[in-house]
Amino acid sequence: MPLTIKEVKHAKPGRHSDGKGLYLLVKPSGSASWVLRVQYQGERKDFGLGSMILEATGTDIPIERRKQLTLADAREKARVGRDLAKAGINPAVHWRQADVPVEAPRTFAEVAEARHKGIKTGWKNGKHKEEWLGSLRRHAFPIIGATPVDAIDSTAIEKVLMPMWLVTPETARRVKQRIAVVLDYAHHKGWRSSEAPMRAV
């Protein structure tokens, strides 16, 4: 069962599950933090999300850069972490990179290059590291590479995917997932007003 705010407030020392791999870890000292347990590269790993707070601070800092998280914040950051791990990206590396100031890129290709530069050190498999960006260069860049990242909608994404969807569906799924990672990264950086519109694709 998901945790309630009351349960979070009165949680005793130990690990308390909120579901979907999200845990509240309370130490004997009383300090509490959020942890995401997720499958990454075939192994179950724990990724720290941040310390627990009961009330929002009113900050407009992107979720992946927040170090203090309410229950709602932790659930959102955990969702991002699960998506990253599923895409083969190390969440810890992704979040560390989010703390590094980067000049805002304008186009999809620039954002994809920036995202790949930040996460490629987290991959052990060199082939996978190069294929992640290579698939976008082959299939996405010719169609939306020069498009401003905040102007990419579901129609633009469909134009990328449709030519290969019936021919190489597995490649199409991977490219779709990687486009989502790029657009979500742009959103969390403040370069795009919304997350990837993948549900509409």
Describe the main β-sheet briefly: 5 strands, mixed
Task: Give the amount of beta strand, in percent.
Answer: 15-25%
**Cα-based radius of gyration, to the nearest Å:** 18 Å
What is the count of β-strands?
5
Identify the overall geometry. Answer: elongated
Low-confidence stretches: none
Q: How do the strands of the widest beta sheet line up side by side?
A: 1-2-3-4-5
Output the number of helix runs.
8
Task: Average the pLDDT over all residues and give the rounded result.
Answer: 87
N-to-C series of helices and strands: HEEEEEHHHHHHH
| Structural class designation | alpha+beta
Distance N to C terminus: 31 Å
Percent helix range:
40-55%
Architecture blueprint of SSEs:
Blueprint: H1 5-9, E1 14-19, E2 22-26, E3 32-40, E4 43-52, E5 68-69, H2 71-86, H3 91-98, H4 108-119, H5 126-139, H6 141-144, H7 154-165, H8 169-189
Parallel strand pairs: 4-5
Antiparallel strand pairs: 1-2, 2-3, 3-4
Helix pairs in contact: 4-5, 4-8, 5-8, 7-8
Main attributes of the structure:
201 residues; alpha+beta; 8 helices; 46% helix; 16% strand
Task: Summarize this entry quickly.
By secondary structure, this protein is of the alpha+beta class.
Structure description:
A hairpin with a 5-residue loop joins strand 2 (22-26) and strand 3 (32-40). The protein is built from 8 helices and 5 strands. The protein is an alpha+beta fold. Strands 1-2-3-4-5 form a 5-stranded mixed sheet, with helices on one face. The chain is elongated.
